[in-house]
Prior knowledge:
Blueprint: H1 2-13, H2 22-33, H3 35-44, H4 52-64, H5 66-71, H6 76-81, H7 94-110, H8 118-132, H9 137-149, H10 159-162, H11 170-176, H12 179-188, H13 197-200, H14 223-237, H15 249-261, H16 267-278
Helix pairs in contact: 1-2, 2-3, 3-4, 8-9, 8-14, 8-16, 9-14, 15-16
Pfam families: HD_5
Region (Disordered): 1-20
Protein name: Response regulator
Amino acid sequence: MARDTRMVSRARRHRSSPGSGLAQTVEVFYTAFGPVRAEEIARTRRNEWFDPTLVDVFLAEARTGRLWESLGEPDLARSVSLMEPPDRILVATPERLDLTARAFAWIIDAKSPFTYRHSEGVARAAAKMTEHMGLPASVVHDQTRAGLLHDIGKLGVSNRILDKPGPLTGEECAKVKQHPGLTYEVLTRVAPFQNIAEVAASHHEKLDGMGYHRGVSAEELSVPSRILSVANAFDALSQDRPYRPAMPIEKVLTILKKESGQQKLSPDCVEALEDLVSKGEL
């Protein structure tokens, strides 16, 4: 009974008007209790929550059995995609994927006033460094996307932690350190971004193995991963944070060179960054 009440409460949160939320509510009850309860909740809430015409259509489909059979298909996502009218299908072209990455970067950076345009800054620095170091144009392109999406995992971290003006507790630090892993989980679930997932999620790794989230050492970090790590540190140190103001560029470079000397950041990548800064390209 208590679980049933929770399902009603959950379904109610997802409805915005009597004519919406039917599919959401049916799915909740179907998953939790099976088709009989799913049909019962739709019938019970007819007129009150849901448009009666929609409920009648749903119940008619449910009676045929085809609806419940379709929900049991092994590749449900593909089955749903095949229902899309041909004239409304959008192909995931490289241009559209770039726009998608940039749009998500804006969403990510809008989460906190202290990360305004951070993802774009990391993407720009990473792409410039990758090109400067002579890597192929395809890698430069991937680095742009990885930079734009590297912090998507932060959407899963509370702003009370991200914007905290003082030192973080051990528990809070642990939660922050989860975000690269969350980035990896998100990107590996999107087929066109799977190839950049590992690089994007490596932006806090260190050559000495003392970074996170995997704590891998130099042997397991690709050149693009090393570049992104330096680009991320460069842009982060150059921006305001809740616990400190933005640092002048000279101090930023001094810190990065020190870390490269301690085998935390790649000396080659830091040198490339410094060269670009000296030329006014960053």
